[in-house]
Amino acid sequence: MSIVLGSPEKPYRVAIIGAGPAGFYTAIELLKNTSHYLYVDLFERLPAPFGLVRHGVAPDHLSIKNVTSKYATIFKSDRVRLFGNVHYGKDLFHEDLRHLYDAVVYTVGAQADRQMGIPGEFLPGSLSATEFVAWYNGHPDFVSLNPDLSVPSVAVIGMGNVALDVARILAKSGEELHPSDMAEHALSALRASQIRDIYILGRRGPVQAKWTLPELKEMGHLEVADLVVQQDAMHLDAHSEKERATDKIAAKNFAQLQVYAARLIENKPRRVHFRFWASPIEVCETNGRASCLRIEQTRLDETGKLRGTGLFETIPVGMVLRSVGYKGVALPGLPFDETNGVIPNQKGRIYHPEAGHFIQHEYVAGWIKRGATGVIGTNKMCGVETAHSVLEDLRQTAPRAYSQEDVSALLHRRKTRFLTFNDWEVLDEHEKEQGTASGRPRIKVVEAEKALKIASQRKNV
Ligand code: NAP
After folding, report:
1. Tell me: the pLDDT tens digits for 219-278?
2. I want to staple 180 with a disulfide (CB 3.0 to 4.6 A). Which of 60, 166, 234, 448 is the partner?
3. Ligand 1 pocket check for 4: Cβ under 6 Å
């Protein structure tokens, strides 16, 4: 028989910072045993919940986004609350959480991007995919990014799924993008886009690409873009051939690229170029803006190590999107592993490497726990593991004699306007209604102030 945690008089309280996939999977697992007296509060910096599902997953991948209906089911329970528009470190602090909760789980994702470390990387016109993705997905912090889409060509650096996402979005026509849930400002900018050539540039070869097959296959269905695969890169060196022969995923990806390489070019208005063995050296500048990308051709040596060949090339591009991975950001009051961009932990328990001990009652899940890898579903296992660590530890400690003040009173006192799950449902309904009127799945409300206004106006009707 499993032990019931807490009692009606003395329940446990757990705070989760970040209402994205990892936060929801952790909450679902924590609340699974309905006999426990355990309450969960989910805090989200933005007015809307769902993190990467709303602001990271490509807007044309609507079926992936359906997972939010599964997340939402937890709010049928009165043991969980959502506090949207509450910023950890601004509205709510480490000390508050330690005071009010028996356990705190940080599921804040990886909010920064990795950098290439080359000259010109931060010129106007040279952006991170993180910013570009957030812009087209209507993340409130990136509405005014205003990328210049009047340029004829763009370089997307990296061979991961994010690179494919941004290349695909740039390659699609307004008609193809219309049924997506892309933010309106991005849809109208992309409708007017002058971009003709999109270069996906990998510093290694086709066998070493990190993208996955369904995403690569999707590139084959672009209505207004041809795929142009660098033919000579399809002749594999000995090392790559060995990798292809032993790695099933790499072999399938390579086979798909072979299909594309054999296709006839149909002279569609746009072209997506797959270029390999091209390491970025410099983003060059004209009139203070990115105007081309200098690359060095690369190869693998006998040991499989990447080497420059000393052969250089310049590709004229008006925009550079580096899509070389995401990185976590340090949180106030917690240790941080700068090299890997994660909070050091063991099975989700935050660990202080210098002090050599765990930080009691504090946990992580998702990208801030394991680094920026994996699909949305990968967070399930990750959240479950952390939830089990939390539950195991709670079993060892009585509910704390924390302050009787509820966090909502604290937030009211601090004049933080937060959104509950019911408020989000109002906003969600509003977005969907607006979408129906124009034949779209939803029209996202991107400004926080507007989101708060809509939720409160409807509530008061
Ligand atoms: P990623 O899969 O790690 O790919 C990063 C790419 O950047 C690699 O090709 C890497 O090449 C390259 N790179 C790194 N540093 C570089 C440099 N200095 N110069 C040139 N190239 C460099 O990262 P991601 O695309 O950001 O994706 C993050 C995670 O989200 C992945 O697990 C991905 O599968 C997932 N995701 C999934 C979906 C989906 O399921 N539809 C969509 C988006 C993202 P090397 O291999 O040579 O290092």
Report:
1. 999 999 999 999 999 999 999 999 999 999 999 999 999 999 999 999 999 999 999 999
2. 60
3. no
